[in-house]
Amino acid sequence: MTAALRAEQVEASESFSPGEYRFTPKDFARIAAFLYEDSGIYLPESKVALVYSRLAKRLRALGLESFHQYCALVGDREDPAGVQERRQMLAALTTNVTRFFREPHHFDNLSTQVLPDLVRLAKAGGRVRLWSAGCSSGQEPYSMALVVLSQLPEAADLDVRILASDIDPIMVGQAREGLYSEEAVSAIPQELRRWLVREGGAWRMADQVRRLIAFRELNLMEPWPMKGRFHVIFCRNVAIYFDDPTQARLWDRFADVLEPSGRLYIGHSERVSSPRFESDGLTAYRLGSPRK
Fold it and tell me: Each residue of 149-165: b (16+ CB within 10 Å) or e?
């Protein structure tokens, strides 16, 4: 047996599956490293099948013959095609599960515990800022906006704004459109649907809602361009994809940009480990004592 044939057999035996494309542990490790470097998302080996199924579609679209070729492409930061495909890879591997008024206790807390003071501040000419960090296709920031409008119908004419950001430009584009199916809007309380406009067989967010929100592509692991502080931050079901050190950095960065009386809302399976925060109810947090 030749050395080349032995090497080929060893490589084949190290593949995760005999699928359409050979996918080796080395390929997976490189893709996981790229994703972690770009987004902070940690990919355990239990996600092998997910990575293969989502990226095999990209290999077909690009006409590539192996994951080895794919890794070479996305690993070349000098090649514009490689840079573009790395963004496509990121979009393919990030999960976008959302719906209107998901985890409704957060919106109850926002409405009863936070907004009354912010409404008074806005009516007195003050600046009010909210942030949906990881907005996906937009249901979360639009839910936030509807709650704000329920207490402050003139919010769009005051200094009240919601930043809605996501790492996936495709999701940001969909969110900016503000167009949703009948099934999607069924979760919106009836009394808040006056800010929706029928458009064909779907519903579009009315101008009063859309004027409140600025949609931006933003990587939470990179420098943030925002200068002012926020009164409310929603970052739900995002940190579960980060390892502990990355989560710790994120909590501290949120603490740095949150107003002293502000709130941070996270997902039901997440916990804030930073000593700078203290619990304010079920997966709602406020700043604790200043860090010494």
Answer: bbebeebbebebbbbbb
161-204 tens-digit pLDDT: 999 999 998 899 999 999 999 999 999 999 999 999 999 999 99
Q: Model's pTM, two decimal places?
A: 0.85
221-257 per-position pLDDT tens digit: 999 999 999 999 999 999 988 999 999 999 999 999 9
Q: Domain extents for the chain?
A: 3-93, 104-287
Instruction: Write the class of the CATH domain 104-287.
Output: alpha beta
Q: What is the CATH number of domain 3-93?
A: 1.10.155.10
Cite the DSSP H helix spans in the chain. Answer: 3-13, 25-39, 48-62, 67-74, 80-93, 104-109, 115-123, 139-151, 169-177, 182-185, 207-210, 244-257
| Total length of the chain | 292
* Fold match, 3-93 / 104-287: no
> Active-site residue numbers?
54, 166
